[in-house]
Design goal:
Blueprint lengths: L9 H11 L4 H9 L5 E17 L6 E16 L4 E7 L3 H13 L5 H29 L13
Length: about 150
């Protein structure tokens, strides 16, 4: 039994990173890193919708916010590794690239793929988050209370 609780596994982290990537970015990084390996489809890219759920205040009871379009696929590499992908929107090429990265991360190419694809995506997401936080901080209003001399 583990002494600590790891909220997310490594695979959950890289799948989250791939799902958040900008359109065409995973394909560009993967193609720059290596030639695409041969694969067979387990499930060709399909476009559908999924229910998005939310929580009031982040901790309240869940509620159905609405539906969003997703593209999913699954493939197997010639070495037997299986890759899955779900990406937001109608992006079959992005889902294919994400599934290839998922499968490659389970084999001997993992270190190369992490350095060439995942690390740049993580850095880009961190920069985007930092920029968004800076914009939000610029609109922050500081309130203060002035003492009224009646006390």
């Amino acid at each position: 039994m583990k002494d600590t609780f790891d909220e997310k596994s490594d695979r959950q982290r890289w799948m989250s990173t791939l799902a958040r990537a900008a359109e065409g970015r995973v394909s560009a990084l993967l193609d720059a890193a290596m030639p695409r390996p041969g694969f067979t489809w387990l499930r060709a890219p399909e476009i559908g919708s999924t229910m998005v759920r939310g929580r009031a205040g982040g901790t309240g009871a869940p509620f159905n916010l609405g539906e969003m379009t997703v593209t999913r696929c699954a493939l197997t590499l010639e070495n037997g590794a299986v890759g899955h992908a779900y990406v937001q929107g109608r992006r079959k090429a992005d889902a294919t690239a994400a599934a290839l990265v998922d499968a490659l991360m389970q084999g001997p190419e993992a270190a190369q793929i992490r350095a060439a694809v995942l690390d740049p995506l993580i850095a880009e997401h961190a920069a985007k988050t930092k920029t968004r936080a800076a914009k939000a901080a610029a609109t922050k209003v500081e309130f203060f209370t002035m003492a009224r001399g009646e006390d």
